[in-house]
Amino acid sequence: MRNTKFHSAHIANKAKMVEFAGYNMPIQYSSIIAEHKAVRSSVGVFDVSHMGEVFIKGDNALDFVQKITINDASKLFPGRVQYSAMCYPDGGIVDDLLVYCISPQEFLLVINASNVEKDYAWMCENNTEGVEIINKSDDYSLLAIQGPFSQKVVEKLFDIKLNIEYYHFTSGTLDGIDYIISRTGYTGELGFELYFQGDEAAAMNLWTKLFEAGKEFNIAPIGLGARDTLRLEMGFCLYGNEIDKTTNPLEAGLSWITRLNKGIFIGKDALVKVKQSGFRKRLIPLVSDERIFPRHGYEITVDGKKVGTVTSGTVSPSIDKAIALAYVDETEYQKGSAFNFSIRGKEHSARIVTLPFINAK
User: Fold this and answer.
1) Which phi and psi (to 5°) does residue 261 adopt?
2) CATH 3.30.1360.120 location in the chain
3) Of 69, 26, 339, 19, nearest to 207 (Cα)?
4) Is CATH 3.20.20.70 the right assignment for the domain spanning 52-135?
5) Element (DSSP H or E) covering residue 221
6) By the number of CB atoms within 10 A of the CB, which of 44, 257, 258, 300 ranks highest?
């Protein structure tokens, strides 16, 4: 397994380490619930250096990004970020990703850690525009600072005002290291992500100064466990759970990033057919008032018959209820069926809610 440049900080903070996407990563430091609540109420720091960074450069960079992704990259301008995805010709999802417009001739694609090699190969395979595709994943480190006080912490660190809108980015310098400062995150809270190239000394310098700047807010290190519960409370998709090559973005509730009215892109024809012919299944948010813990892979039933499967589930630390995302048969959804979680042979009633889960009653 590989270590990120923040590994010594994780060990010093007595993190429980696990293998994730080929990296030795912190799953938790204290407890998942405590870390989750720290982000919702104050500020937390996530090491997400395992994520992939691929740069697209050249006169035809925009054309390539438009072809390879399903959102409309022509709407981007320097300093703007876009959530998007790449699809196979059959509409299955290669990966979801962030698209950063650095200039009209340069874009940064931030991809999932477990998909870096696959995604890079897919981009190269479909490069008919003659662009440069540069995989810099091994060169970049990435920290996410998330929570209501995140802006105050990052502003103290870089001595700049960060009055930038959601899904925008700017730049900053700390001790001679250049940073991309991005108003993005995976928690639903105010937050920033810091991308930089530097050695372990630079990484530890950043870590130390972040925690000094955030001391008055009780800043805390946060592991992948709380990252997962935080994103699930918002209803954000996770590759390998809600989305993969067997799912399409329309059925996964990502029609808002699927621009079928733009020009040609990989997977468009298949997705147009899905929209015209109708869904086979649908990703829905479910809440149960019963004291249960729905988990990935549990069955969704109607009158004892399996009609779907849980993709992600937990007990929400914010609302103290069982929550889950699940795919269910479209016919049952359209009928307005009453869904149940099937756990160890017993059915537990569930109801469809509007995302995010943290607003569910």
Assistant:
1) -95, 0
2) 2-51+138-233
3) 26
4) no
5) strand 220-222
6) 44
Give yes or no for a contact between 314 and 232, defined as CB atoms under 8 angstroms apart: yes
Question: Rounded to whole angstroms, how far apart are CA atoms 22 and 39?
Answer: 26
Q: Where in the chain is the domain with CATH 3.30.70.1400?
A: 52-135
300 three-state secondary structure: strand
Question: pTM of the predicted model, to two decimals?
Answer: 0.97
CATH number 3.30.1360.120 given to 2-51+138-233: yes
Residues with Cβ within 8 Å of residue 79, at least 6 apart in sequence: 101, 164, 168, 169, 170
Burial class (CB in 10 A: 0-12, 13-18, 19+), 256: exposed
DSSP conformational letter for 37:
H
User: For residues 10 and 26, is the Cβ–Cβ distance under 8 A?
Assistant: yes
**pLDDT tens digit sequence for 212-222:** 999 999 999 99
Give every CB contact of residue 261 below 8 A, 6+ residues apart in sequence: none
User: How confident is the model over 157-211, as pLDDT tens digits?
Assistant: 999 999 999 999 999 999 999 999 999 999 999 999 999 999 999 999 999 999 9
Cα–Cα distance list, 172 to 104, 147, 150, 242 (Å): 21, 20, 16, 35
Identity of the amino acid at 211: F
125 C-beta neighbours (distance < 10 Å), count: 8
Cβ neighbours around 230 below 10 Å, total: 28
